Amino acid sequence: MVEAVDIESDLVQFRTRRRGWPSSCNVYLVRDHEGSVLIDAGLGVDPDLDALLCAIDGALATWRQRRCEVHTILLTHTHTDHAGGAVPIARLTGARVLLPAAGWTQAADPGWQAHHILPREVICEVESLRDFDVAAQFRHDTMPELFSTESGITWQLMDDGDEVQAGPYRLKAHHMPGHDIGHLVWADLHQGVAFTGDMLMARGTSLPWYPSNAGGVAGYLASLERLAGLALRAVFPGHGPVCRGAGTVSGLVRETIDAVVARDERILGELLRGSAQFGRLDDLVYDGAVRQVIPWASSVTMAHLRHLEQAGLLYRRPDGFYVAETIAAARHLDALGKRSS
Fold it and tell me: What is the pLDDT of residue 201?
C-alpha cells in the first residue's frame, strides 16, 4: 500500500498506492546527524498508518536507526491527509511537531474544518449535502485524533521566514496560502529544492483546492506566482512524483495555473450561452462521479463563482440562476485566450 522511493542517499519518499478517497499524501524521511526528520505525516488511520510505519521502519533500518530517532515531524499544512498521522507518530517516536501557526485551529477544531471545507453557501446549493457531516467523515476516515495542547506532544508553531535544518537542507518557510490558510512551502533556495505540499497539480481529483478562508482562487494563483519566482530545480510534492529540472518545475507551476484559469473559462463560457444553476456549473469543475466520493468538491466550484463575482463577471439572481455580465465576461475570456496563445 505504501511504496518507498529513494530520492537521495539521505531522503526517502513514501507514496501511497491508493488512488481513491481517502488517499494519503506523500511523506518524506530525511536523515540528519541527530536522527531523522519526517516531512508531513499522512493519514492517522489503518491500514494506511500501519503501512506507513512499516515503510518508515524499513528506511530507518537501512540507516541503522530506530523510530525513537525520528526527532521532528515537519508539516506543510494541516489538512487531514497530511496531518492525520502526526499525533500517533509523534507518540510512537517522541518527535516534536512543527506546524504552520495558522493551521492549528483547523487541526484542533472539527467545527472549523466543517465550516471551511464545506461552507453553508455550498450546502444551500446542493440538497444532497444538507445532512452530510463532513467533520465526522474526516475524523473517521483520515484523522481520528485532533491536535491538542493536552496531548503530551511538543508542538511548535511556524510562520513565514522560520528556518529548520533537515539533513542537508536548510529549509525556510514560505507562506503560500490559497490551498490552505497556513500552507508553508519549505525551501532550501541555496540547493534549489522545496517540499511544496499541495501547491502543485497532481494526477487525481483532489487538486487544485482553494477554500475561501485561505484566499480562494485569487490567493492560490498569487501563491503559485510566488512559487514560480523561487527558481527551483527540484520539488518534492505532497502528491505525485518528484519533479526535477528548472524547466520541468516551472512547467508544472504553469500547468497548475492553467488548470485553475481553465475552470474560470469553462464557467464563463457556459454562462455566456445562457444562465445556469449551480449544479450545471458544478459539473464543469468536477463531474458527478468525483462528487459521489468527495462531496465537498463542490466547494471548489463555489470558490470560482465567488472569484468571478468579485471580478464583476457574473452574479446570482434571486431565483438561484447564475448570469454572466455579458460584455465584461466576453472581454475577460478574450484576454485569457490571448494570454494562453
Answer: 82
Reading the block at residue 217, the C-alpha cell is 482562487
For residues 185 and 199, is the Cβ–Cβ distance under 8 A? yes
Query: In this structure, are residues 31 and 304 in contact, taking their beta carbons and an 8 Å threshold?
Result: no
Range of the domain at 9: 2-257
Angle at 187 between CA 100 and CA 148, to 5 degrees: 20
HSE at residue 16, side-chain half, CA atoms within 13 A, is 26
In total, how many domains does the chain have? 2
Q: What is the CATH number of the domain that holds 216?
A: 3.60.15.10
Whether residues 53 and 92 fall in one domain: yes
Are both 117 and 134 inside the same structural domain?
yes
Dist. CA 148–CA 135, nearest whole Å: 17
* 240 lies in the same domain as 291: no
d(CA 125, CA 61): 52
Same domain, 183 and 297: no
Spans of the chain below 50 pLDDT: 204-205
Question: How many CB atoms are closer than 10 A to CB 246?
Answer: 12
Q: Please check whether residues 203 and 231 belong to one and the same domain.
A: yes
- Looking at the fold, whether 172 and 69 belong to one and the same domain comes out as yes
Taking a C-beta distance cutoff of 8 angstroms, is the pair 315, 325 a contact? yes
Total residue count of the chain as it appears in this document:
341
In this structure, are 293 and 245 located in the same domain? no
> Which of 208, 197, 147 lies closest to 174 in space, CA to CA?
197
What are the residues facing 30 on neighbouring strands? 11, 37
Domain stop point among 214, 242, 257? 257
> CA dihedral defined by 288, 303, 228, 22, rounded to 10 degrees?
-40
pLDDT in tens, 145-184: 999 999 999 999 999 999 999 999 999 999 999 999 999 9
Largest alpha-carbon pair distance within the chain?
A: 66
Do the Cβ atoms of 36 and 70 come closer than 8 Å?
Answer: yes
pTM of the model: 0.95
